[in-house]
Amino acid sequence: MEQAPRTNAASSGLEVERRVLKSLMRRSDRPGLIWLAKWLLLLAVSGYALHLSSGSLWVVPAMIWYGFVLMLPMYSLSHECAHGTAFRTRWLNELMFWLSSLVYIEEPLHRRYAHATHHTYTSIDGLDGQMVFANAYTFPVWLKEVSGLGQYLYEFPLLFRNAIGRFSDEVRRYTPANELPRLKRNARAFLLIYIGGSLAAWVFEAHWVWWYIVIPRLVGGPLMIAVTLIQHAESDVGVYDLKRSTRSVRTNPLGEFLYLNMNYHIEHHAHSGVPFFALPQLNRQLRDSLPEPDPGIIRTNLEVLWVVVKRSLGLDPRAPSIRQGVSMLSRQLN
Prior knowledge:
This protein is an all-alpha fold and 334 residues long. The chain has one domain (26-232, 243-287). It contains 17 helices and no strands.
């Protein structure tokens, strides 16, 4: 069977001189360990603030902030480790991959193979293993996605099916056959940790599990998804140009830190072997070939929501300023 074209730097006109790219792709433990230490310190301070706010109305903003500081880096770290670029030392990368994926809620082997198809066939229907919803959201689909319900309804049934060896055709498509037994073992381990951990926390009255992990996961999850959703929402589907199917956004230094520079998302898709700490340098190499990044995570989310509402009401779905997929819009407006 003829192999489908791939979405990559070459298909998007975003190639970098080989010597420069090789330098940018050099992996190192040091940046990841420094990032990890800073994040754990920020998490500890945020957790202490949450502790101090207990019993007052300040607990609401404290929980929201702690949930955000917990969950966005859990996504970012799990994602970077899936690429094997968070740390140079393999065991350290895999350890952090497991721990972050447990909180993010996606078994790491599945995450790695599904995400590989997302890069190889970005937003190509039937080939992109992470294209769960269409990029052109209606309000019910947007709400289901942003609330986190979509992730829970997808990931937990997937875990159960994989744990009993009932692999879907899609999972079999992108997972090597010799990896399926390990996928089954991993899924069982995840379920055992979730179920066993919950029972142990209840029996031994370990309230900290609910206060510092479970509730923040529920509260911070939607904030995490709101940040990650705009990577591809309202962008083109079925095209091989990453500049049309993927979005980079401006953000502040704290946003870049918590997001592990994934705001440089077109750049990341073009050269996914470049570690997070080198993405700003990659951006400088590609800047002349890239579209202008969209104006901030909050504003981009608000414009996506505005488009979603207008689309659901049958109105013109064009956004005020963020880039949208040309072919997608033309299909909707005609």
